[in-house]
């Protein structure tokens, strides 16, 4: 087992919190009996191969619970074990991985006064370890990537960013995304605040528009392997349905997809990581149109839809709502994007509307919340909580 994490002396803030400690009790464990001792452990090899059978990951002599599947072993070893392969620092046991996370969080809890005593801290350690090693629950990936590896680890998997209609803000957005991706997390952003390519700049000339800046952000995301060595960046890009560049946004990914088809016909590799896909743009993000009830009513009635200037609010283009919806459907048929987010309903279901409206989501869209916020996801295996009698 890993050595106890140092730095457990309560801080002044922690001392002040003592009266508001968690008050934990045991549910799955017993004092003096470590959760690891309740399981049978075995040594295995982990391996992952590409579609053509080429090995992309191998690690031998890995220690895992005997009841874990080979798939779980492969995922844990290839994604979550830290340390350079072949070095003494390389993790090789699920015990090391779980201890690294659990003991670090326990140390934080002691320092911040979340436990009434060291005995209660042990309850926390044993109970959390039990849940994790028995696959009853799991943290999101950045926790496994980063906790116990650096002083201030990035723990949240999902971020929602914001951007303003200035070059400083746009470049800051791309830089923030890069840091988020490097830590193994993903981000979403609504670009509707950026003036369209049909509007003028204050100093004269035409604006680039959000789709143009999407190209740069997409290239940056593709260059950063999220988590350092673990997975590529995850992005969500959103544009409101009344933005003047909505048609360019709807079709940008489908247009690039057709370029890939042409490259495939010329003999370029069309595999997932093939040269055809690496040669085109908009491959590192999910795109979604932000719909409103107003648009859906116009679609239903066969009415007109107006796009409006970001800077002045004036009508820029009038089209049939059904024509735009057809373009969305055709683009999604070609490449799977754009998706649709129903803004009116999302904000109707908003749990804290006084704090601000919801404009965006994380890359997978299960997290809908305020701009410049983050969410630390976790998973529960509900079948592990079902009793033998089915209760």
Proper CATH architecture of the largest domain: Alpha-Beta Barrel
| Number of β-strand runs | 16
Average pLDDT figure: 90
Number of domains: 2
Give the % helix.
Answer: 25-40%
Identify the CATH class of the largest domain.
Alpha Beta
Shape category = globular
Structural class: alpha/beta
Q: Give a short account of the largest sheet.
A: 6 strands, mixed
Order of helices and strands: HEEHHHEHEHEHEEEHHEHEEHEHEEEE
CATH topological fold name of the largest domain: Anaerobic Ribonucleotide-triphosphate Reductase Large Chain
Q: What is the CA-based Rg, rounded?
A: 25 Å
DSSP helix count?
Answer: 12
Low-confidence stretches: 1-8
Keywords:
12 helices, six-stranded mixed sheet, alpha/beta, globular, 2 domains, single chain, two-stranded antiparallel sheet, 36% helix, 19% strand, Anaerobic Ribonucleotide-triphosphate Reductase Large Chain, 391 residues
Please provide a written account of the structure.
The protein folds into two domains: 124 residues, no CATH class; 218 residues, Anaerobic Ribonucleotide-triphosphate Reductase Large Chain (Alpha-Beta Barrel). 36% of the residues lie in helices and 19% in strands. The strands form six sheets. A six-stranded mixed beta sheet has the order 12-9-8-5-4-15. A hairpin with a 6-residue loop joins strand 13 and strand 14. Helix 3 packs antiparallel against helix 4, helix 6 runs parallel beside helix 7 and helix 8 packs parallel to helix 11. The relative contact order is 0.11. The N terminus is likely disordered.
